[in-house]
Amino acid sequence: MATMEESRTDNNSGAHQNKPEGQLIKSPEGVYRLLRRLQSKHTPLKLHFDSVADYYTSMVLAVNYKEGYFLLDEVTPKWGDELMAKAIPFSFDSFHDGCKISAAHMQASGRAVKEGSPIYKIPFPTELQFLQRRQFYRAPIRMSLEIPVRLGVKVPPVKRDEYDNIIPQNPTWAHEGLLRDLSAQGCQIEVPGDLQEALPKNTEYTSCHIIFPNGHLIDLGIAVRHVGYDENRDISSLGCQFINMNPKLDRQISFVVTELQRDNARASSGNAISAPASELFTPPAANKEKGKDGKKDETGKNQERNEPNPALPEKISIAEAHTKAVGAVRRLVMQLREKNPLSIKEIWEVCDLLLQALEQDRQELILYTRIRTIGNYLYEHSVSVAVLLVDQTQHNVTNPKSRDKDYLRNLMFAGLCHDLGKGLIPERIIGKGGDLTEQEAKVMHKHSLLTREILSRQQGTPEIALLVATQNCERLDGSGHPEHLKSISISPVGKLAAVIDVFDAMTNGRSYKAGLPHAVAYKRLMGMQQQLELAAVQQLIKRQGLFPIGSLVSFENGDLGFVKRQNEDHQPQVVRLVYNKQSNQAIPMRDVDLNKTPSLGKLIGPDDPARYQLSNDLLLDEL
């Protein structure tokens, strides 16, 4: 079992400071797993040598748990090789998928040359600092994706596809270049030529235009904090920090970071994630925003149709259906925040996709809903609740509407939209790690009424969506909100939605905490009989199984694996083995059919992934 020590402070500094923030991972197996994460994802390390002002870059090439060391690639710039070869003490910071991983007080114990380049042997650090926070994630831009950046000219705000029309014919730009990475706090821009002397550090620009392939423009202020120069490419790299930010710009940048993260996953994973390209990175098609005849209705809005789509192919990609659903909810929330018309038609379209995905391969779709991405909780939670609502309903033989396709489609819509109002709640409340104050709770509780109000203004919204929007927050004893309804006043679908909403929230982590093991969540749900309907809880447990898809289970021989598929009795059948708790080591991942692999021994029971720093996103990796 990995040992963790968590120390929360207000200090945002690196690992070499005295007051660490986040978790201190001290066990060898914990250190091993984090280093392996950096290796497998090719995450750059930012090195800082003692008594040397500059920073250097390297990457983890290999990690040896048995002997307690890891190998670092050559250090760039190249003069860092001399510092490493002399065993000058160093620390490193790395930023991976919203997590900061840092270590200090390390020295190289050996140097070798492989394929003409130096590599270094580094003993395991005594501890690694692990801090999970969204703003640390730096989303790289793949080389084939060009996102121009222009500094120095202020122009009026513009709409999509209008950028080139309003720029003067001969503008005076201070600098023009390409975006190379982006985070919530800043970016890196590559500009032709050597700007080390021409562009002093801390130069500020009140206007920086980031222009995306689809014509979308973000205009914000930046300060240049670092200027580097690559002689071979004749390119200057500008490390920039955003200035004069406001909540609207924060949301725009956060959205782009998420889209870049998905773009990189899509580009690097082959067919592991069959995700369509983001609209941001796709050139606009003619009349994309209009109907087939290019006309709008008399209200000035595009006509929205919520009829089922008869043109879906016989077989679809389950992963793509899930990705499109998450993207549709995300866009809806962004439109809501920007006070733009809501693309309700897209939600109806993904309802059809998800219904077909459930019919085609229920277990694979459930699997995708159990794997979460940092920063996407609201959108992925909405999709999960929608899928579970329909899954539970259509297999409940006592429900007369269990085979009513129109009812199930409306129910899917209700689930996808049930938390829309949270998009208008301040992030400091939504993302707060501790208990909410009384005033913060009052603000949070408004989200269900906001959702109902938003949906009631949309043409074609089914009544069940308005019902689920509020009643998923009600409790049998009247302790819920917004109307403090009691058992007799809450509809059956409202009671089911409440159970599913609580279950999904319990079992899936946020940026500030890990999710509960499913067995623990079941136990807590069973203990909430004053608030949640017992029959709905029992129905959920029966349908999802004691060892749900995506959960971690333990075997007699010490192996741990994530449940990938279940048999007809909702028991684990196919499991992906990832770890052995007797040796406290990761093992080569493999999928096993429990009916054909007696060597594992008896299935002992559920286990907690957080104890071993395991994540069920390992289920997405290609074997």
Poorly predicted parts = 1-20, 154-171, 269-275, 285-305
N- to C-terminal separation? 26 Å
Helix content: 25-40%
- Reading off the top of the CATH hierarchy, the class of the largest domain is best stated as Mainly Alpha
Largest sheet: 7 strands, antiparallel
Q: Give the overall shape.
A: globular
Architecture of the largest domain in CATH?
Answer: Orthogonal Bundle
CATH topological fold name of the largest domain: Hypothetical protein af1432
**Number of E-type strands:** 23
Determine the strand fraction and express it as a percent band: 15-25%
Secondary-structure class: alpha+beta
Please, how many domains?
4
Q: Quick one: CATH superfamily of the largest domain?
A: Hypothetical protein af1432
Your description of this structure?
The structure is a single chain. The chain is an alpha+beta fold and 623 residues long. It folds into 4 domains: 4-132, Pnp Oxidase, Chain A (Roll), CATH 2.30.110; 139-165 and 173-246, Thrombin, subunit H, CATH 2.40.10.220; 357-541, Hypothetical protein af1432, CATH 1.10.3210; 552-620, no CATH class. The protein is 30% helix and 23% strand. A 7-stranded antiparallel beta sheet has the order 1-2-11-8-7-3-4. Strand 14 (175-182) and strand 15 form a beta hairpin.
